[in-house]
Amino acid sequence: MYLANEVSGQAGFRGATIETDVPGMLTLRLKVDDGLVSEIEAISVRQEKPLNGNLIGTQTMMAPPWMTDFDFNGFAQPEPVLVKPLAPGESTTADKMAGVANSYLYGLQTGNSSSVPFTGDCSIRVNGTQASDNPAAQAIDPKQPDFRPHTLGCAAQIDSGLFAAVSQLRRQRILLIDSEKGLVLMVAEIDHPADKLQFELPNVGAIAAPPAFRIPNTYLTTILYKIRQGRIAGIEQIERPAFYGISSGWPK
Length: 252
Description:
The chain has four helices and twelve strands, in the order ββββααββααββββββ. The chain is mainly beta and about 250 residues long. The chain is globular, with a radius of gyration of 18 Å.
């Protein structure tokens, strides 16, 4: 997938890579000044699971665990909502698109979806796995078998309070806005201090912290939003757990 913004002189790419037989996904931003490339920002996540029984993946012994494992097979086809062209009247100004995209992570941090505009059919995919309205999603705490956050819709996941309980948004930065396609590309640094082994969720009760959030870590996350008529219609996150406090390397 390609994005472009002539006003800012930037272009973006989101697509598959193969590096020494290990598949992955690359998020790329290019900035052009006077016809020359002046900035290249790249975030790559590769398959961590053994492939065909003979590859050990790319994760080290000391790397933190994942909440949702990266599954390259989940990217065999782009999400239909992301590539569907906007119909006449469905486009949104770049400034409003930026506000809508920023509102999502802020909503997760507060556990309140009231200020986050979603379409009725909004969907979320994380690391190639359907992460909203997924009836096959598993419970995160066996003692609370009915709480399966990825079975919930986009707004209900925020309101569950799970992400507000375990994570702290340190920084989010919009890389590129393509108004013509209704796409916003963002990178975020999300910290998990692992300071709670258990927490209370409204309407659920006590939940044991998932293993992924029992070790301090930071998720380097790239997010691709589809915005239609000022509302979020689709979210695709690719996230990589890394050492606590790590930065994407770029200034605000």
